[in-house]
Amino acid sequence: MPKMTTPLTDTAIRKAKAQDKVVKLSDGNNLYLVIRPNGTKFFRFDYRFADKRQSISLGTYPSTTLKEAREKAIQAKERLKDGINPALAKNPILNSFEAIAEKWLNIMESEWSAITLAKTRSRLVQHVFPAIGNTDIKEITRLDILNIVGAMQQKEIFELTSRILNNIERIYKYAVTYGYVEHNIVGDIDKRSALKRKEVRHVAALTNEKDIKSLMDDIKIFERDSRADISTIFALKLAPFVFLRPYNLRYLEWNEINFEKEFLDIPAKKMKMKQDFILPLSKQALDVINAIKPYSFERSKYVFPSAITSTKAMSENTLNYAIIRMGWKDKMTSHGFRSMFSTIAHEKISEHGFHSDIIEVCLAHAEQNKVKAAYNRTNKMKYFEEKKALVQWWADWLE
User: Fold this and answer.
1) Does residue 105 belong to any structural domain of this protein?
2) H-type helices in the chain, by residue range?
3) Per the CB 3.0–4.6 Å rule, which of 48, 54, 90, 300 could disulfide with 310?
C-alpha cells in the first residue's frame, strides 16, 4: 500500500522549527511547506508540465494561510487541466505582491549577504505582506502603500519605514521590468512628505574612561553574580576586545578562528560590507576564547551556542539583556563596544600612533571615498601587523 501523508495543520506549521538545512513538510497532493534555516516558511506546489517537473511558490507563511495555500494549489491544478502552466499564468493569485516579492528576493540572494536577505524578508513578512501580500500587484494603490507607511510610523520605527518603502519600490521596479505591472506607483509618492523624520539617536555606548572601567569591572564579576548561560558570560567577556558587529560575534564559528596565527577570519558572506575580514586577536581575547573552548568546541560549530540547542547561535538580544542586568540600561548596548573602541582609539592616536584608516579597517568599515577604495583592493591580510599592534594596545588599555 502507498504511504499515506498526514495533512498539515496550522498548529503543526506554527510549531515547526528551522534546522541547519532546508526542511520540507508535506500536506499531500504535491503541496508542501518549506522551512529555510533562517526561519522563513513558505508553501510550494510541485507539478509536471510538458513532461518536466516544475514548482511554484504559493506564498509565505503566516501571511498566506494553510487554507489559502490549498486553494491556490487547487487553482493551479485547474490550470493544468486546461493545458496552462501555472507558473506562467497571469492571474491575481500568482501575480500577487508577495509572489513577485519572492522572485525579487531570489534575485537579490546573489547580491546580498545571508543576514541582509533574511532581515529584508522578515521585515516584508511582518510589515507588508499582511496588508498587500495576497493582492494582485495591479490592484494595489498608492493609498495602500501609504497606509503601510503610516502604520509603521505610528510605532515610531522611522528608519525602518524608509527602508521598507525603498524595498517596495525596488520590487515595483522589478515588476515593471518583467511585465507584471505597467507603472511603478511608489515613484509617484513624495517621500519627503510621506516619511516623518525623527531626531537621530546614536547607539548607546560608553566613551568616558571612568564608565568604561566600571563596565569592565562589572563584566569581570558578572559570572559570579549572575545565573547566565556560559555562552553569555564568555561572549560578554570577549566583546570589548574584538568589537565585532553583534551578528558576527553571536555567529562566530570555531573554524573562523586561526589559533596558530592568532586571528579571526570571517568570510565575506557574513560581513555587512561583503568582504572577507581578518581581525588579529590580542592575548586577552585569546585567553577568553581558550577558556570557553572546553564548553562549546566539541558540541557546536558556534563559539557561543544557544542555551537551548547547540545547533543554533545565541539569540539576538541575549547580550543586551545581560548589559541591562548589570545596570547599564540606556547607557550601553552590545553594538556599543564598537563605538567605544572607535572613540577611544581616535582620541588617543598620539598614544598608539596609528592613523584613523587603521582604526576603520579594524572595524571592517568600507572606504567611503570610492576612488580611493578602487585603488585599495588588495588581499584581506593588508595592514595585518598594524591592526595586530592596535588591537593589543586596545586590550592593554582596557585592563
Assistant:
1) no
2) 10-15, 66-81, 97-108, 114-127, 129-132, 142-154, 158-177, 191-194, 209-225, 230-242, 246-250, 283-296, 318-325, 336-347, 349-352, 356-362, 370-374, 384-398
3) 300
Task: Compute the distance between CA of residue 289 and CA of residue 297 in angstroms, rounded to an integer.
Answer: 10
Give the predicted TM-score (pTM) of the model.
0.53
pLDDT in tens, 153-182: 888 788 888 899 999 999 999 999 988 889
Query: Per residue in 355-382, pLDDT tens?
Result: 888 999 999 986 544 434 443 445 788 8
State how far the Cα of 238 lies from the Cα of 235, in Å rounded to an integer.
5
* Tally of domains in the chain: 3
Contact 339, 215 (CB under 8 A): no
CB 246 within 8 A of CB 319: yes
CATH number of the domain encompassing residue 37:
3.30.160.390
Chosen domain end from 172, 201, 230: 201
CATH number of the domain residue 227 falls in: 1.10.443
| Claim to verify: residue 185 and residue 228 sit in the same structural domain | no
In DSSP notation, 287-347 reads HHHHHHHHHHTTT-SBSSB-SS-TTSBPPTTHHHHHHHHTT-TTT--STHHHHHHHHHHHH
